[in-house]
Design brief:
This protein is α/β, with parallel strands linked by helices. Helices cover 32% and strands 21% of the residues. It has two domains: 291 residues, Aminopeptidase (3-Layer(aba) Sandwich); 111 residues, Alpha-Beta Plaits (2-Layer Sandwich). Strands 1, 2, 3, 4, 5, 6, 12, 13 and 14 form a nine-stranded mixed β-sheet that branches. Strands 7, 8, 9, 10 and 11 form a five-stranded antiparallel β-sheet that branches.
């Protein structure tokens, strides 16, 4: 079936993406569509209508995940395509939604060309991938895969005190636990890269081999507050100076672990945060990501060494591990299928890793899963300036279509 080389309708894909963007479009042509908001509900209604228009059977599970199913000749586990429709505040028009629109466009192409599949095919919309309204991110796929406890997730509250359960019920998209995706032949997610690599290397397709493992710590540095004008420098226990020295030392040691390691100090809180008072406490975050568990272990050793570092001066240093995750490797056969499709279509491509988390990483724990990326202009994402060219979107969806045809 792969030799048919069907192609999607690029203009239709573009119109679909712009229609989705109308649900929460911002003044700067971005999108604010928080999970289970009114904007999300309207986007869900549109997704449902698109599915029903081409004859897909639509169902919703107990976490609000939506499925548009095309029956196959045999009752086999389906091939599932999907991503998410929710966004961050003032996010972009492509993050997540491209994967849903891609699945829709593949379905439309199969239906209008009368392609009969041995197994069922589905397009899926995951609930609350971003975690921008209800933490944590990837909430619904986390429940499906057994990573998160459903009762705990239902009790999560947004900034206004509304629980996830209340928002789910009021949205009209609380379905049945019986509708959950329990097994599938494959889960395929097309996503924008959200980084600069593909564009910098002038490549069209990224075949994602894994989602990087990571570790996140919070480091507390405790000193002593005194008057900023009357305390000699030699008699200070300045928590901020100690913290800055520790950050510099950590950067030097982490850099020595190799260019593939990425690490970030993204949050710093200084107390009492008064310009006339020597800081008595600094709390900062330090996270690192890498494919190798051994490298992550070395990162943790470097963080623990902060307690005995000469840079701590007279201050007390307490590292606390907040959380971690192992590297998630995608199904090699599906990665190969994506690569073969990209090559057969004549699209430049490369194998790469994802530093960001995606629903596919949770789905991979119980379903053979894989992802592909398309370029992000200037690497921008989670921003109103997020952009992927229509041509790159079309190339990515054609690779998805060609891969689905090879599987069904």
């Amino acid at each position: 079936m792969n030799d048919q080389k069907l192609k999607i309708n690029g203009l239709r894909l573009q119109k679909t993406l712009e229609s989705f963007a109308d649900f929460g479009r911002t003044e700067r042509n971005g999108v604010t569509r928080l999970a289970l908001s009114e904007e999300d509900r309207r986007a869900r209604d549109y997704f449902r209508s698109c599915c029903e228009e081409i004859g897909l059977a639509v169902s919703v599970d107990d976490m609000g995940n939506m499925y548009g199913m095309l029956a196959g000749r045999e009752n086999k586990p389906p091939v599932v395509m999907g991503s998410h429709l929710d966004s961050v505040k003032k996010g972009g028009r492509f993050d997540g939604v491209l994967g849903v629109a891609a699945g829709l466009e593949v379905m439309r192409t199969l239906v209008e060309n009368g392609v009969e599949s041995i197994m069922p095919i589905a397009v899926m919309n995951m609930t609350n991938e971003e975690g921008a309204r209800f933490e944590p991110s990837m909430m619904a796929s986390g429940v499906l895969s057994g990573k998160f406890n459903k009762k705990e997730m239902l009790a999560k509250k947004d900034a206004d005190g509304i629980t996830f359960e209340e928002a789910l019920q009021s949205s009209g998209y609380e379905g049945s636990v019986q509708n959950r995706l329990k097994e599938a032949s494959a889960f395929l997610e097309l996503h924008i890269e959200q980084g600069p690599i593909l564009e910098k290397e002038s490549l069209s397709i990224g075949i994602v081999e894994c989602v990087l493992g990571m570790v996140c710590y919070e480091i507390e540095v405790t000193g002593e507050s005194d008057h900023a004008g009357t305390t000699p420098m030699s008699m200070r226990n300045d928590a901020l100076f100690a913290a800055v020295d520790l950050m510099k030392e950590a950067r030097e040691k982490l850099a020595a672990l190799g260019d593939d390691l990425v690490y970030t100090i993204g949050r710093v809180n200084v107390s009492p945060n008064i310009h006339t008072v020597i800081p008595n406490k600094v709390v900062f975050s330090l996270e690192a990501r890498h494919t190798s568990a051994e490298v992550i272990k070395k990162v943790e050793e470097i963080i623990q060494e902060m307690q005995e570092s000469e840079q701590r001066a007279a201050c007390e240093v307490t590292p606390r591990k907040l959380w971690s995750r192992d590297t998630v490797w995608f199904e090699p056969a599906l990665c190969d299928a994506f690569e073969q499709s990209a090559a057969s279509l004549g699209f430049s491509h490369k194998r790469m890793v994802s530093g960001a988390g995606h629903d596919a990483q949770f789905m991979a724990s119980y379903i053979p899963s894989a992802m592909i990326f398309v370029p992000s202009v200037n690497g921008k994402s989670h921003d109103e300036d997020e952009l992927t060219s229509w041509e790159d979107c079309e190339r990515g969806v054609n690779v998805l279509l060609d891969t689905v045809l090879s599987l069904i």
